[in-house]
Amino acid sequence: MSKTIVVLVYDRRGTQRCFEELSRFKEASWVVCDVRSQILLSEKGLSFITEQDLFSGEEVRLREDEELARDLSENWFKSLAEDSSDIPFDIIETYYTRQFFSYFLVLLRALHLLERIHSRYGDCTLVTTDLLASPHSIRWSEEESPIPCLLRSLGKQLYIKWEILDSGKETVRKKQPLKSLSFIRNWLRSLLDLKLFPQKAEVLLLGNPKLLGPVANELESEFKMNALRFRPTFQNNKLKSSLDENKIRSLLEKSRVFEIKGMDLFSLVWNRIKIFYQQEYPKSKASAQTTSQFLKKINPKVLLVDEDVTPYSKMAVSQARKLGILTIVVSHGLPGLRHGFSPLTADYIAVWGDFDCNRLQSWAISKNLIIATGNPKYDNLCKTDKEEGPSLKKIWMEKFGWRVSAPLILVTPDSFKVNGLELFADQMKTPEEVLMQAECFLKVAKEIPQLRVIYKIKQGKWDEAFYGALAKKWGGLPSNMKWVSEGTAVELIKASDLVFSGWASSSLETILLKKPLFLMHFLEYAEIFPFSAYGFKSKVKSANAVLEVCKKLVQGQLPLNEIVSSQECLTRPFLLARDGQAANRIASFVHQQLQ
To answer: What's the pTM?
Structure first.
């Protein structure tokens, strides 16, 4: 074994497995791709670097990885149609381009990470585990964990000596295919048989009722149109594939589509593709037929969806367009990543504001297909009773035994949804920054006892365990600070005196509710949503900056009204207007298209 040992960990259980042999690794260099593992290593007094440190300065290569992942997700299956007339190929594969994009990107990032480790440490032995159980967008089975897979297959080509620690049978994850989306096949069929749906509907709405419900209400009340609201549920129906796996494998191998930089990755990706054709493909094919029958029965003139990227929505839009039904996406969020919006499958997309229009056009979506309407989910926020805030604050302060007159701040951090191997070149926000934010407010709460801090976290054992461990690391949670998972962000924004936000939705909700807002931007990377470019200046880039703002709040020296007034610069580009008429604009557009 080489003298230099590098230990690579990417989840909590894998880190704990490495700790079992810590005596071997006391002098090792540690690379950590998981924020919970960072806490564990800190508790042991071990130094480490993160995947972000290794990818620093690699923006060009990161963009190349993204483009290659996108190209693979859109084209890997095309040789099946070109080279074989007897394989029943259709467009089912295209419904899954987003899922395969994430899959290929993680694989390419893992390859990139190994190359960076070799570049940094040279002749070393890389020690890792076969576990990856963090809450990432792609769930890998044990044999598909990307790092061990790459090491076993390409270790020599990567010039890396390696050792994979056995995780033990009790911790091996069950094999998990692509997220099962059975697309309501049996449920739809039973509903059709029972004739629970009306025979006809002018407008069919599929998706989030909080987003599409206000539009349906406007269609019915203002324009007297028959609108059917429907939200699909998913089942785990088992359907067997009739496809010839051997022939598919042979054709894909012959196509050499997975040869990248002189390395053949086909043996690595085949298991995922095989699972897709065994499990997802037959379900999707059956669901497409059932969805088509459903649309024919309802016979809507217009289909509204909240997105056209995930498999079911993409399928529904595709089937509707085949039947000549007008399709419109009512955007569920701001356009942060291209693969979540482009290419557009529907006929039109209704977006929130001018920023959305400009960004979608930069992604080659025609201006003629984009309608700026505002966000119907936010319509009610424009009509909020100003007296509601103080009463809500009283409820929350008394709940925690706090003095009602004390200043209350709300923190809405970004979430831990980003895989350490799923970084984007222009959007380098990672869980590491979320950790920095949490530690920042633990420090602030300890140093300013007059302040009250509500830190909004997601419900679930993962987040609660993480934040509990973090507070323990800091000597316990201060009495003037609470991790809060219950309640909505909107309710807590109304109750607060000041909001620190790490994500766009809560920031815009804060602006609509006319509460003072500070954006947290602790690491150096380009803004995902360029609020600064539109004149927004209330931003904090460090824990010390947060501390100064909070001290001024407690001392009564923070110009809250001026901050609220300055935030209006974001209304037009990101919200269009604060008139509460977004749903009406969408309904009006639908009505016009049918005249």
So the answer is: 0.87
